[in-house]
Design goal:
Helices cover 90% and strands 0% of the residues. The chain has 5 helices and no strands. The chain is flat, with a radius of gyration of 20 Å.
Length: 155
């Protein structure tokens, strides 16, 4: 539920939406790169309960940050939402027409759906199971760190 929430809040708090979204994606990629390495280090130096407690602490900090956000009131949002609703439906219709007119895009979308279901979906649980079994938490941290680096580099 967090990702859709972030996507909905960005236009309300950012003046440059494209830059804000770009910054979020870079931060996510950096977290994907550094998180597993940090987790492996913490697991090696500490214990599972300690790592889970630290992870819970990061969620608490995130929740506090969300509480401190100053979003528009419901009345302010309603006036802008009413004005946007008509253009939203128009944008959706135009976007659907553009999508339907580009058959090559259908193939790209289908390829990504197949990839998500057959490759990317199973990769997380299977990698975790197989790598941790043979190489422990340090090996698993290294694999996910490499995955994060590849994400940052766009590989």
């Amino acid at each position: 539920m967090f990702q859709p929430g972030v996507a909905g809040v960005v236009p309300q708090v950012a003046t440059d939406i494209q830059r804000a979204n770009g910054t979020l994606r870079v931060a996510e990629s950096l977290a994907a790169m550094g998180g597993p390495a940090l987790a492996a280090l913490l697991l090696t130096a500490g214990s599972v309960p300690l790592v889970l407690a630290l992870d819970a602490g990061t969620f608490a900090v995130s929740g506090l940050c969300l509480l401190l956000l100053r979003l528009p009131t419901a009345a302010q949002a309603a006036t802008t939402t009413a004005a946007r609703t008509a253009s939203t439906w128009q944008n959706l219709r135009e976007g659907w027409q553009e999508f339907r007119s580009r058959t090559w895009l259908w193939a790209v979308i289908l390829a990504w759906v197949v990839n998500g279901v057959t490759a990317f979906g199973p990769i997380h649980p299977l990698t975790t199971l197989l790598v941790a079994e043979d190489h422990g938490s340090a090996g698993l941290g290294l694999v996910w760190t490499a995955f994060g680096i590849g994400s940052v580099l766009g590989v």
